[in-house]
Amino acid sequence: LLLAGDRGHSRSVKGRSKAFLEVRGKPMLVHVLETLLHTPEVTEVFVVADAIRLEKVLANFGCLELAAAASCPIHVVPQRESLLENVWNAFLRTLPAPEDPDHAVLIVPSDIPLVVPEELSAFLAAAQRADADHVVGLTPESALELFAPTDTAPGVKMACFNLAEGRLRQNNLNWVRPRRSVRRCGSRRASSARSGGTSGCSSPTC
């Protein structure tokens, strides 16, 4: 799922949707979409956005031709009012028939134009080995030093958090099994209700 919506809590840049801001002559979402289409593990892409605006971009930047050459269909999913609605609605469109309760999806934002196919492939391989409900991508602080400001050039100083493995930053790659997460959360709530306690699950999807 490629998320390019601009409603709800989505942040704009000077009143403009980040997904459609151009970097080296292309909207950021196009850079990310091209990377997805060149990632061998990706078999189809569901793009959530303003459908009318997105369809124009797909046509103007040759995305449909690239998708055809890669045998990787692009599906336009009209955006809803919130991030959660966008993810859940798009996920439902990806479900196979018959439905697989362990069906997983890769979720990426549209504002990571520097992502490359090798990074996505490595993340997907690690996520599948983990066999978890939800795997979040992390980047070590050392890998971000290239983008930090120096005495002679501007840059970006990114906030990181501390884990046992070191200082890390979430890189916005997510591999999720939504049905399994909902089922697990529902089981916790049912167990909690029987015992008179709280489940500790705050997912609005549950």
Mean pLDDT: 88
Shape: globular
Structural class: alpha/beta
The share of residues in extended strands comes to 15-25%
Main β-sheet description = 7 strands, mixed
Query: Kindly, what is the distance between the CA atoms of the first and last residues, rounded to a whole number of angstroms?
Result: 20 Å
Residues in helices, as a percent range: 25-40%
The count of β-strands is 11
Oligomer: single chain
Order of helices and strands: EEEEEHEHHEHEHEHEEH
Give the secondary structure arrangement, pairings included:
Blueprint: E1 2-3, E2 12-13, E3 16-17, E4 22-23, E5 26-27, H1 28-37, E6 45-49, H2 51-60, H3 63-69, E7 74-78, H4 83-94, E8 105-109, H5 117-130, E9 134-140, H6 141-144, E10 161-163, E11 166-176, H7 178-195
What does this protein structure show overall?
- The chain has helices at residues 28-37, 51-60, 63-69, 83-94, 117-130, 141-144, 178-195, and strands spanning 2-3, 12-13, 16-17, 22-23, 26-27, 45-49, 74-78, 105-109, 134-140, 161-163, 166-176.
- With 206 residues, the chain is an alpha/beta fold.
- The chain starts with a strand and ends in an 11-residue tail after the last helix.
- Strands 1, 6, 7, 8, 9, 10 and 11 form a seven-stranded mixed sheet that branches.
- Mean pLDDT is 88; it is low at 202-206.
- Helices cover 36% and strands 22% of the residues.
- It contains seven helices and eleven strands.
